């Protein structure tokens, strides 16, 4: 399981020109589910995202989590994070989980994040999404479980 976590001032997600989800402050999380991933990895990923200290405290140090600052999360499925480019120039996605199982774990992570008291908004699993994002920092962290 792989996630790219980005600190954002604003993120909006569209499908077919229609606004689906939007957050004004918090984290945009792009999530790729790897073949064979289980609930244990998803649980660990949710815990790490909820507690990741990448927001600045009063001293300008990255010492606060999205929970601490009252931010929201936009969780976006992105199987292309698992693209393997080690052989040739066309990525292979053979490491990505089957869509049905990937969607289950994507929704599992969203539910777990909500159990931390976070507001979690979702993209549309498997859709062609367009994303407008105003990164903060920029701060981008890659997590692997």
Radius of gyration: 15 Å
- Regions with little confidence, pLDDT below 50 for 5+ residues: none
Distance between the termini: 5 Å
CATH superfamily heading: D-tyrosyl-tRNA(Tyr) deacylase
CATH topology (level 3) name:
D-tyrosyl-trna(Tyr) Deacylase, Chain: A
Which CATH architecture would you pick?
A: 3-Layer(bba) Sandwich
Mean pLDDT level? 97
Structural class: alpha/beta
Q: Provide the helix percentage.
A: 10-25%
Residue fraction in strands: 35-45%
Compute the number of strand runs: 8
Annotation field: number of helices: 2
From N to C, what is the helix and strand string?
Answer: EEEHEEEHEE
| General form | globular
> What is the CATH level 1 assignment?
Alpha Beta
The biggest sheet amounts to: 6 strands, mixed
Write the layout of secondary structure elements.
Layout: E1 2-15, E2 18-23, E3 26-32, H1 39-51, E4 55-56, E5 62-64, E6 72-77, H2 99-115, E7 119-122, E8 129-144
Parallel strand pairs: 3-6, 6-7
Antiparallel strand pairs: 1-2, 1-3, 1-8, 4-5
Give an overview in words.
The protein contains 2 helices and 8 strands, in the order βββαβββαββ. With 145 residues, it is of the alpha/beta class. The protein has one domain (2-86, 97-144): D-tyrosyl-tRNA(Tyr) deacylase (D-tyrosyl-trna(Tyr) Deacylase, Chain: A, 3-Layer(bba) Sandwich), CATH 3.50.80.10. Strands 1, 2, 3, 6, 7 and 8 form a 6-stranded mixed sheet that branches. A two-stranded antiparallel ribbon has the order 4-5. Helix 1 (39-51) crosses helix 2.
Could you write a compact summary of the structure shown?
This protein is of the alpha/beta class and 145 residues long.
């Amino acid at each position: 399981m792989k996630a790219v976590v980005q600190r954002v001032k604003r993120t909006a997600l569209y499908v077919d020109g229609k606004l689906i989800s939007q957050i004004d402050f918090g984290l945009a999380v792009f999530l790729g589910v790897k073949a064979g991933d289980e609930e244990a990895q998803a649980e660990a990923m949710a815990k790490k995202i909820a507690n990741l200290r990448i927001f600045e405290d009063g001293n300008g140090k990255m010492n606060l989590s999205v929970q601490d600052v009252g931010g929201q999360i936009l969780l976006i499925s992105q199987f292309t994070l698992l693209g393997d480019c080690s052989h040739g120039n066309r990525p292979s996605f053979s490491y990505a989980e089957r869509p049905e199982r990937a969607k289950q774990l994507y929704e599992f992570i969203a539910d777990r994040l909500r159990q931390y008291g976070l507001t979690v908004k979702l993209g549309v699993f498997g859709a062609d999404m367009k994303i407008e994002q105003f990164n903060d920092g920029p701060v981008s962290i890659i997590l692997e479980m």
